[in-house]
Amino acid sequence: MMHQALLIATMLLALPACGAGREAAGGERWSQAERAQLASMSLARLPAPPPDPSNAVADQPAAAALGRQLFADARLSRDGKVSCASCHDPQRQFQDDRALGRGVGTGQRRTMSVPAAAHSPWLFWDGRKDSLWSQALGPLEDGLEHGSNRTRLVQQLRSHHRPGYEAVFGPFPPLSGLPADAAPAGTPDERQAWSRMSEAQRDSVNRVFANLGKALAAYERSLAYGASRFDRYVQALQAGDAAGQQQLSRDEVQGLRLFIGKAQCSTCHNGPLFSDQHFHNTGVPPRDPARPDRGRAPAIAKVQADEFNCLGRYSDAPAEACAELRFMADQDPAMEGAFKTPGLRNIALRPPYMHAGQLATLDEVLAHYRRAPAAAAGQTELARPGAAVAGRQPIRLSDDEARQLIAFLHSLSGPVEERPSGGGAR
């Protein structure tokens, strides 16, 4: 039922842009190279999510079913009021429409959307996690998000989800004698309680905690984007279907031409998800100029030291399967102040924008790129008039061109779908 309600809601959100009042386009001339680039951005070119060798249950339906229950369970929070779905609302593109995430407190960054996250090698705006299951663990213990702690979470999992858990992971380990509240990075009292536990107890709790994340990840892997008007336009273009090409208006087609050309958007926003899955500094002004967010730079050490990373003892992957982590560049000065390129599918449906929701509308986003301000931390990759930046030119767009580019971005809206586990093939 949740799947059906979600599909209907997202389809309703996607429909209005197809309504009357648009001047339809057809027969637009594209070069062979441009046609190939447009095809590369079509959802038809998106493969199934890559396997996650660090999560042995990633594609098991029973794990996804357990993860779906856990995703909506507010008992897994300090005050019993916050679930994963509180911020990643299925009725809001699995985000919350807020500039800053709000759990038991208010966070420092914007809530990221979940669909298609399984395609990303790095999670969070700064990439401090290297798998969906490891990412899912972070908010549970974060003092501003779920605000819970490790032993409490494990005991709640056993109390409320034991049959589903044991069907996937086998019997719970002995957990007698555990303190009610203990965690390695919690409050002083929680840390002290954690230090008094035996090594065997800590290992058992960590393993169940990791399995909690793996079940959540199995559910999140099932969330995907459905086709947009842009995808149907590209399909019609490839088929020589002039009538089908009227999926996009003339303004939207001109915006698409700007997107892959003069506006340079596809330099970073490329591929079927409109993201290169990398990190860039584009000089977005920080919320607190006195304390600019350094983004990716400090996150590199965090993911390397994370006990729940691909190389950790709770990962199911052999070391040779952890190439992203093993060969990660960790001395790149360009990562100072850099943030992950967000995908642009359904982007018009989920303002505000940027890593801390600094820009309220797409008009403000375009104005930022046209202005190309200096970065508060590190160096912006955007070229400014008179300043040489390798591979970049100043983004010079007229007001009318900015309007057309935004019109095109609206054509990327489509449904969010929950797909069966077991490979996620489209």
TrEMBL record:
Keyword Chaperone applies: no
Cofactor mode of binding and number, as noted: Binds 2 heme groups.
PANTHER family tied to this protein: CYTOCHROME C PEROXIDASE-RELATED
Cytochrome c domain span: 62-224, 250-413
Binding site for heme c 1: 84, 87-88
Binding site for heme c 2: 265, 268-269
Family matches, as PROSITE patterns: CYTC
Chief location category: periplasm
Record protein name field: Cytochrome c peroxidase
The protein's required cofactors: heme
Cellular component terms (Gene Ontology): periplasmic space
GO molecular function annotations of the record: cytochrome-c peroxidase activity; electron transfer activity; heme binding; metal ion binding
Post-translational modification: Binds 2 heme groups per subunit.
Organism: Paucibacter sediminis
Keywords: Heme, Iron, Metal-binding, Oxidoreductase, Periplasm, Peroxidase, Signal
Signal peptide: 1-19
Location in or out of the cell: Periplasm
